[in-house]
Write a structure and sequence with these properties.
Helix 3 (76-86) packs parallel to helix 4 (123-142) and helix 8 runs antiparallel to helix 9 (263-272). The chain folds into two domains: 2-154 and 194-219, Rossmann fold; 157-192 and 223-276 and 295-332, UDP-galactose 4-epimerase, domain 1, CATH 3.90.25. The protein is 40% helix and 16% strand. A seven-stranded parallel beta sheet has the order 3-2-1-4-5-7-12, with helices on both faces. Strands 6-15 form a two-stranded parallel sheet. A two-stranded parallel ribbon has the order 8-11. It has helices at 13-22, 53-60, 76-86, 123-142, 170-176, 196-206, 227-238, 249-258, 263-272, 281-286, 296-308, 318-332, and strands spanning 2-6, 26-31, 44-47, 67-70, 93-96, 110-111, 146-151, 153-155, 181-184, 190-191, 193-195, 216-219, 225-226, 244-247, 277-278. It contains twelve helices and 15 strands. The N and C termini lie far apart (61 Å). It is an alpha/beta fold.
């Protein structure tokens, strides 16, 4: 089986690339060639900018791929470009959407693939919804072979907290120094965090799956944690005591808005402030034997070790520090 991954070296996609290669799949990675990732040496590399359609056409030539998966499409314009580039060039096109596209607030606490898509808080999520709608329209009208995959908060080379870090080391640095960190609300809302290696098991199982055409799937762990437990696990991985301050989500968003950080409203009210319980029965039907096996408390330790294995990864984002400190300062004035 020949697959083309657009991206293929990121937080989620690198694990998918490695597992596909391990299973004997012929993997080609199309990206700008700026990231060197261990374990992908056997993949064929195409250096091109997906936003430059002419260079992509030249780079891939006349090759027909069994599967093309785009990990870095975010807007309807990205999807329109892919429809033009790849129609008739693949038997399956996998679009990486987002579980944040699901209805906020939820009308039912358990999320299935039939849960409505509607997010009034986050442009990112609305763009993903628009991408899905465009692709499904193309599937219905022209038979474009789309499969939609919706990850939730998935980690490996990122620190998956709600406030304070993502690709940076900031939250770990604060914890090690005993500085306060913010947990939204009272920390008891439920959340699901998935390791990229677990995500990859289900994702690779969908490659070339004939019955997956026209279908959507979310792929998450079945482990349910509240945010207090999440931050406790991160502090434990950092070898630090958790110094948490609980602050109402609306207040955090108000201060962030005043700082010009409106994305925080989407990040919290549009995603992480809402309890999420995912029903994974559909992906398990299509990929028999899939189960997530990496507990967060174990996986986050490996992630912190990854950051600390190279000094250049231990980046402190002063923007994240400023958000935390200004919210704390405003809260202390109440």
């Amino acid at each position: 089986m020949k697959v083309l991954f657009i991206g293929g070296t990121g937080n989620i996609s690198a694990a998918c690339s490695r597992l596909a290669l391990h299973q004997g799949i012929e993997v080609t990675l199309l990206n700008r060639g700026k990231t060197d990732i261990d374990g992908l040496e056997k993949a064929r590399q195409i250096t091109a900018d997906i936003n430059d359609a002419a260079s992509v056409k030249k780079a891939i030539g006349e090759v027909h791929y069994d599967v093309i998966a785009n990990f870095i499409a975010f807007t309807p314009e990205d999807v329109e470009r892919d429809l033009e580039l790849f129609s008739g060039r693949t038997d399956q096109y996998i679009f990486i959407s987002s579980a944040s596209a699901y209805q906020k607030p939820l009308s039912h606490p358990v999320i299935t693939e039939s849960t409505p898509l509607a997010n009034p808080y986050w442009d990112y999520s609305r763009d993903k919804i628009a991408c899905e709608e465009l692709l499904m329209k193309s599937y219905r009208e022209t038979g474009f072979p789309v499969t939609i995959v919706r990850p939730s908060l998935t980690y490996d080379t990122v620190i998956p907290v709600a406030i304070g870090s993502w690709t940076d080391y900031t939250i770990i640095d604060r914890m090690k120094k005993g500085k306060p960190v913010i947990i939204h609300g009272d920390g008891t809302s439920l959340w699901t965090i998935t390791h990229s290696k677990d995500f990859a098991k289900a994702f690779v199982g969908l490659l070339g799956h004939q019955q997956a055409t026209g279908q959507s799937f979310h792929i998450t762990s079945d482990e349910l944690l509240n945010w207090n437990q999440v931050y406790e696990a991160v502090a434990d991985a950092a070898g630090a005591e958790l110094n948490a301050v609980h602050i109402a989500t609306d207040f955090i968003c108000q201060v962030a808005d005043e700082m010009g950080q409106g994305w925080m409203r989407g990040n919290l009210l549009g995603d992480k402030a809402v309890s999420t319980i995912f029903d994974n029965s559909k992906i398990k039907r299509y990929v028999p034997g899939f189960t997530a096996t990496i507990p967060f408390r174990q996986g986050i330790k490996k992630t912190v070790q990854w950051f600390e294995s190279k000094k250049e990864r231990m980046v402190i984002d002063e923007g994240n520090n400023q958000i935390i400190d200004k919210v704390l300062a405003a809260y202390q004035k109440l």
